[in-house]
Amino acid sequence: MRFRCSGPRDRGRRAVALLVGVGAAAAAGCTAQDGPTAEAVELTVSPRQGGTVAPDVPIAVQARSGTIADVTVSSGGKAVAGSLNEDRTAWRSRWALTPGQTYTVSATALGEDGRSRTLRSRFATAKAEQTNPMTLEAPADGETVGVGIPIVMNFEEPVKDKAEVERALVVRSNKPVEGAWHWVDEQQVVFRPKEYWPAHTKVSLQAHLAGVSTSKGVYGGKNQNIDFTVGDSQISTADEDSHKMVVKVNGKKVRTIPTSMGDGSERRFTTTNGVHLAMQKDDPVTMTSSWMGIAPGSAGGYSLTVYDSVRISDSGEYVHSAPWSVGSQGSSNVSHGCINVSPSNAEWFYKMTNRGDPIIVTGTDRELEPTTGGATGRWTGRSGCRAAR
């Protein structure tokens, strides 16, 4: 501590004042000063005023000798999300910026000297010469789905910067769910829960892809947000040996359905073993012999209209109405690989099934391949159809 005195410059009197301490110093007209003078805040905003930057360049605000009190960023009347660090000295935008837009930043910070400072910046993002649009294959916005449903995203072009894309994807649910993104190939990425989704869960997906680099010089398309609801836990188990399918809803058995599955005379006529998912519902669907390489109308060919059909794999397997095989249902396997059920059971199953409901096939010697669907494999919208004899 040092003293500054306004009294007479008498060494004797000053010495006395120093000896008697603060009280005497005050009497002599002295004021105390603790340490160096408090500093004004230094505030910086990037990108700078008037510039044009790439969409994946973040907005950054920094304060030195003070803390950030407020940051407001907008573009086209919409607020831009960001976050502060713990000591409130740095702010950063959360997502990539939209190409070809103008952004306005207003930042205010409070200095150690107690004074505030506000800084503004207005800049633009460069237009994207090339984009890589994404199509959300499943689920649809507002859809009620089964507990096994994956979130499936397809990109028009191969994605090289996969980590950047994953960072832009946010999945939220109102019940605890552990899950992960998995790249099936360069163009399809899928989110699956580690186990099934809990029944009656509300889920949202936010895909902040606009301005995200998917490869050099190529940026994601528009942002997309969806909300969907997981319905009842509806899990069916079809056993080849017993010729029955047991349907359970929320853990309780609600129906046992006689079935006829693939006859196994050839490997291609064997129903695949494993956890399938309801992928698509068709009423009716035309099943042809084209999947065997035989054109309808030629020797051994066929074209058949089938009702109440639930597709369970990408290789053309369905649970469907088969009035022609009712006599074999519950006792023997006579189909080309589909799960044949009676018209009344097919109508009931069709109505109650949601996309993503698991259908587990047991007892066969042909495993479901990852490339044809199921709870861990590829999910596609293609429809290859086979028919039962």
Describe the protein.
With 389 residues, the chain is mainly beta. Helix content is 8%, strand content 41%. It is built from four helices and 33 strands. The strands form nine sheets. A five-stranded mixed beta sheet has the order 4-11-10-6-7, with no helix packed on it. Strands 25-24-23-33-26 form a five-stranded mixed beta sheet, with no helix packed on it. The chain has a four-stranded antiparallel beta sheet with strand order 3-5-9-8, with no helix packed on it. A hairpin with a 4-residue loop joins strand 23 (234-239) and strand 24. The longest helix has 10 residues, at 11-20. The chain is elongated, with a radius of gyration of 34 Å. The termini are far apart. Residues 1-33 and 381-389 have low confidence and may be disordered.
Number of helices: 4
Radius of gyration: 34 Å
Helix content: under 10%
Global structural class: mainly beta
Which key terms come to mind for this protein?
single chain, 389 residues, mainly beta, five-stranded mixed β-sheet
